[in-house]
Each structure stands twice: as C-alpha cells, then as structure tokens.
Amino acid sequence: MSRVAVIGAGYVGLTTAACLADLGNDVIVVDINREKINQLLHNHVPFFEPGLSELVERNTKAGRLNFTTSYDEAVPGAEYAIIAVSTPEGEGGEADLSFVEAAAGSIADAMDGPLVVVNKSTVPPLTGDMVSKVLRSRNQKHSAEVVSNPEFLREGSAIQDFMHPDRVVIGSHDRAAADKVAKLYEPLDAPILITPNIYTAEMVKYASNAFLAARISFINEIARISERVGADAKLVAEGMGMDKRIGPSYLDVGLGYGGSCFPKDVKALSALAERFDYHPELLHAVMDINRDQRMLVIDKLRECLEGLNDRIVGLLGLAFKPNTDDLREAPSIDIARVLLAAGAHVRAYDPAAMDGARVKLPEVEYTRDSYDLADGADALVVVTEWNEFRRLDLGRVKASMRRPVIVDGRNIYDPQVMRGLGFTYRGIGRD
Ligand code: NAD
Fold this sequence. Notes:
This protein is an alpha/beta fold. It has helices at residues 11-22, 34-41, 52-61, 71-74, 98-110, 127-138, 158-163, 175-185, 198-229, 233-241, 262-275, 281-293, 296-305, 331-341, 354-360, 370-374, 387-390, 394-400, 415-420, and strands at 3-7, 26-30, 65-68, 80-83, 115-119, 144-148, 168-171, 192-195, 312-316, 345-349, 365-366, 379-382, 405-408, 424-426. Helix 14 (331-341) links the parallel strand 9 and strand 10 (345-349). Nicotinamide-adenine-dinucleotide binds at residues 7-13, 30-33, 36, 84-87, 99, 102-103, 106, 121-122, 151, 153-155, 260-261.
C-alpha cells in the first residue's frame, strides 16, 4: 500500500484517485476549487461519470480516500504526487501549461522528503523537463523525480478503462522512478510500456489522440463522398472495420469529434510541430474536416425546412458523447448557435447535460423529455447518440411534430424504417 497525493479532482484525477484507493492505496486528492472539494467532502461527485459516486463513497467510508484544498495536508508523507490538472487550449492552439506549472510549484513548496511526481495530464513533450525545473528551483532540500504516465481513459467508461487499460505507458529519465510508478499498476495485470526517455511517453498520448481523431475525420470524408455517389457510409465503415488490419472502432460517421481532449490535443500537437518548424498537413486536414462536419446538419435542415427562420428545431442530445454531461467542444453548442443566429427557435433535451447547457446556451428552451421536445417541432436533430433515443416511440414522436423531419447526425435510425413511418429522414453519408 502506498500513500498517493492526486492533484486535481476532475474526470481524470478523481477516477485515478478512487481506483487507486480501491486497489488498497491511501489516497488524498487536492484541488484548488473549494466548492468541488466541499461537495466531495459531503459525498457528492461534482460531475456525472457512471459508477464513480459509488466507488468514491465506498473508499471514502473505508478511510482510503480523502479530499483537501491544502497541499500541506496532501503532499507531506506521500510517495507519489500525481498531477491530473487541466491543460486547456492556450494561445495559438498550444497547450496551456499554467495549471501544471502551478501544481508543480505547490508540490515543491509542500514536499518534505523524496517524491515521485507523476504527470498524468496530457502535455506536449518537454513538459516533464519544465516540471523538473520548477521542482528543483522551488525546493532545493528534497529531490523529486518526474515521470510521464499519460491517461487513456474515456469519459463514460472511465472506471472500466482505468481498471482494464489496453496498456499503461510510463516514461522517465530515471528508470527507478518509472519502475516505482509501474508498481502502482501491478494489480491491474495490464501490459506496461516503459520508455527510457520522458518525451516518448508524452508523445504516445498526443499521437494516439491525433490518430483516433484522424480516423474520425477520414470516415467523415468518406461519408461526404459516399453521399454524392449513393453509397451508405455507415455500411462502408462496417465493411472496412471487418478488416483486422483496420478494426471497427473510431469509424463512426457523424458530426465529428468533440469533447475535452481530441480538439485541443490535435491542435496542440499541430502547434508544437509548427514551433519545431514542421508543417503537419495531415493534422490540419483532420481539424478542417472536423470543423465543417458538424455544420452538415444545418445544410440538411435548411433544405428540408426551406429555410430556418422561425422554424422550431429540437436537439436530441447536447453532451459531446453519450454517458457524460461534458459539453466541452460539443457539436451541439455550434449547431445551436448557428440555428439561433439564423432565426430558428431552438429546443433541447439531454439526459445528463442540461444544467451545464443552461449556462452556455441560455437562449435555448429546455424540455422535460424527448416527447416534449418533439411536440409541435418542425424538425428534430440527433446530436448525441444516447441509447434512450434509439428506443423512442417514433410513432408518438411523429404524431406530435408539426413537420416530421429528422436529421440524424449520428445515424442511429434505419433510413428505410424512418421513411416507412412517414418521416422526412436525413442521415450522414447515407442519403
Ligand atoms: P478537469 O477540468 O475535469 O479537472 C481538472 C481539475 O484540476 C479541476 O478540478 C481543477 O480545479 C483542478 N486544478 C487546476 N489547477 C489546479 C492546481 N494548481 N492544483 C490543484 N488542482 C487544480 O480535467 P480532466 O478532464 O480531468 O483532465 C485533466 C487532464 O487529463 C487534462 O490534461 C486532460 O487533457 C487529460 N485527460 C483527460 C481525459 C478525459 O476524458 N477527460 C482523458 C485522458 C486525459
């Protein structure tokens, strides 16, 4: 059992902390957001992630998981300090490392002995060196080794992903420190790749996210071509995915990628490349295709409704993907704003993301459920593929709409079935 301080109580930090506590470690989470820590101290997880509340409660009750706003409470006595703070998009698309830098400074000030500082935040190569420098300059008494250990969990299945990772990647200039971090993961029985320099581990994360984003933009480009030649891109993707060399994941034709990671990480990798005098053409294409993809539903709506002014449009889903309340870089935000600017009346329903959406999009009307959303609407747009939308009573939906138009941004419905029910139906890449 090890004593671990986790810095940051967000999706990654809290999941990491709860899982490491569940594996028997003594974990304390420090966050500068007092409100968040207060909620956690009162047994409330401040965001939606399936299974996390139960895991946090179980480990808090067992005394293995604690929360604080004080580094002086969290860091002294810890063997590891795991940094899991935000790395949002900064100037010119580069990663904003100010939170990581601040966390490193606070760790240095609170350290009272040797420490392994693990960077789990997604950061560009060379960040580990910056963290080492901050630690050394702020605390000359005690030494800290820095290790990169990027996180690959996905929101919506964070606990499962943490506990059963495809691989654990660890990189450090100091092999002993890397081995010490590997010990934390021993109970998971996952393949562990230790890279002998820290930059490689940092790069694995950016390269992985950029590659997955590229798959999505690739299939969306195929979708645009498919639409023009009469092919069904959903089936094209299925056929491609059956090839073992390709595989089926991240080939979903739709509105493109969103969320807190892919958009900022592809941008940051591209900005990093430019800083080192390399123009990453493929990454630029990935981003351009993704930017335009979410606007396809607007073109389809405009065509089906003969204009958008005064039309009542209902958005089925707001979160950037199902099983999360995360709205960061969600296509719904851009789509709602363009519709509002074109004079449409926009309604929305999402099973988890409405509270956050009310703040970001106050002009939108929020409904109690999908049926209220459909009542009197001119069109519905599937923005997020929540399972409950697949199970709607579509006859009831159609009967209550002013015009039975559905633009299915995630291809969750069967075009033939929808047309059979009397809908004017448009999917993506399969008209
Ligand atoms: P988040 O915004 O949900 O949480 C970050 C937390 O860090 C916040 O609670 C914030 O208050 C806290 N924080 C900021 N500065 C701090 C400081 N100096 N000291 C203590 N706490 C501080 O972010 P997240 O989604 O958990 O992402 C964290 C990192 O992990 C990012 O680099 C992200 O790219 C990466 N990542 C995220 C995911 C994901 O699915 N969300 C997956 C893999 C990697």
